[in-house]
Amino acid sequence: MNSSRGSDRYRPLFHFTSAKGWLNDPNGMVFYKGEYHLFFQLNPSGTEWGNMTWGQAISTDLVHWKQLPNAIEIDSFGHVFSGTAVVDWKNTSGFRTGAEDVIVAFYTAEGQMLNPKKPTTQCIAFSNDRGRTFVKYSGNPIIDQITVGNRDPKVFWHEPSKRWIMVLYVEEKRDENKVHTFKFFNSTDLKKWEQTGSIDGFYECPEFFELPKEGNEKDKKWVLLAADSGYLIGTFDGKSFTPESSKMLLDHGRSFYAAQTFNDIPASDGRRIIIGWMRGGKYPDMPFSQQMGFPSELTLGKRHGQICLIRKPVMEIELLRKESLFNDGFILKSGTNPFNGIIGDAFELKLKTVCSGSQGVSIGFHGQELVYQPANGTLSVCGNSVSVGKCNQLDIAVLIDRTSVEIFADDGAISMSECFIPDGSGKISLEPLQGDLTVSDCNLFRVG
To answer: 0.90 cut: is pTM over it?
Structure first.
């Protein structure tokens, strides 16, 4: 939810948007003293991409956000592109000046957007007041330009090696061919960095983290994720990543990009929480453009015997439930709609169906349609489809906002994120595709 929703017709009710201006990649996501910090790419001067600055919002519950003054702004090194933030608990950087632990932000200074152009470098800024203000390091840049296409530093503490780790996207040219790589670095003080490894085939906005397999804390794997939500699972020795899986997709929609996870969530919580940019949305005549996805939790589970990421909305969605509109199991007969007469902007739907007597199920909202067809095993929405396998049963969670839909199917193993322009009707429907449909469980909530 936004701290400033106003009466803007196309402003989402429970997805973060900037009060004004263009928004894209989430940046610097970090937790400190009860506050989730969400930094983000922001054009404070218009609703098109440009003038890249770090905007900032904070939340105590992941669903109610307060936007703060911009955190890091354009300077003589360049525009402020994507990056990450950490809490330097042991003050390895020496930046701490008071009682608060220092938050250190890493970002790409895009000098190519200046006139005249300058190198593209990696820089840091730090905060001694819980992220309210940032001071740029006088020794910037901390990593000089490797190639013009080097950006988006991901940084975290690696306890086994007692080192800070950075993963950086670097675009290389080899034999006249463009090669997309992630390069690995380590450091003891956040200021001096040494390259230790590299892997090809990943483009932009690296994310890298460790998760237990199926909840087993004694059996953990590392996940390397790129901007397009492609990821590999493997091992990491503090210097190099070794993949042990084929590449998979975290989200199969067109509106989930450059996702990042929070650093420094306490072990007592233990969750790996991710937010992506829901790119591609249209918001006619609004003072803002673009929105964030709803926060979701990542775990490592299995689908068809293969280890994969499982993604589900965070449990804090329950804080947004305004009204329970439907809670029942029933036989859905052809030509009927149990949601008839329900009007609204934002809903959470949890549905379990058995399609053996029908050709599938259709869920309508804001002039859009979500369709599951068991005969060919496809799930389709907003003109986009994904194969979920031929099965007569559907277990799905759907988050519907004014301008977006997020779908979590097969217990979170399949997800899709899409944006759209609503038709203004506010109608929602549930109908079988020919024949009767058994609905074993249906929960519909009004949220916002």
So the answer is: yes
CATH T-level topology, domain 21-313: Tachylectin-2; Chain A (2.115.10)
Q: Is 264 a catalytic residue?
A: no
Tens of pLDDT, residue by residue over 49-69, are: 999 999 999 999 999 999 999
Residue with tokens 């979170």: 412
Q: How many of the other CB atoms lie within 10 Å of CB of 68?
A: 17
Candidate list 25, 101, 152, 345, residue with the active-site label:
25
- HSE-CB for 386 with a 13 A CA cutoff: 20
- On the 0-12 / 13-18 / 19+ scale of CB atoms within 10 A, 387 is exposed
Burial of 316 (C-beta count, 10 Å sphere; 0-12/13-18/19+): middle
Q: Are the C-beta atoms of 21 and 40 separated by less than 8 Å? A: no
Q: Which two tokens stand for residue 223?
A: 């996940």
Q: How far is CA 389 from CA 80, 246, 272, 352, 376, in A?
A: 43, 19, 27, 16, 7
Q: What is the pLDDT of residues 339-366, one digit of tens each?
A: 999 999 999 999 998 877 678 899 999 9
Task: Return the CATH superfamily for domain 321-447.
Answer: Exo-inulinase; domain 1 (2.60.120.560)
Q: Are 339 and 428 in contact (CB under 8 A)?
A: yes
Q: What are the boundaries of each domain within the chain? A: 21-313, 321-447
Q: In what order do the strands lie in the sheet with 404-409?
A: 321-332, 437-447, 347-354, 393-400, 404-409, 414-419
**Which DSSP string do the residues of 315-362 spell out, in sequence order?**
GGGGGGEEEEEEEEEEEE-TT--TTTT-B-S-EEEEEEEE-TTSS-EE
Q: Which residues contact 126 (CB under 8 A, 6 or more apart)?
A: 88, 93, 95, 102, 103, 104, 105, 134, 135, 137
Distance, C-alpha 113 to centroid of its chain? 26
Count of CB atoms within 10 A of residue 113's CB? 16
Q: Which among 193, 255, 247, 251 is positioned nearest to 224, based on CA atoms?
A: 247
321-447 shares the fold of 21-313: no
Q: What is the DSSP string of 111-141?
A: GGGSSS---EEEEEEEESSTTSS-EE-TT--
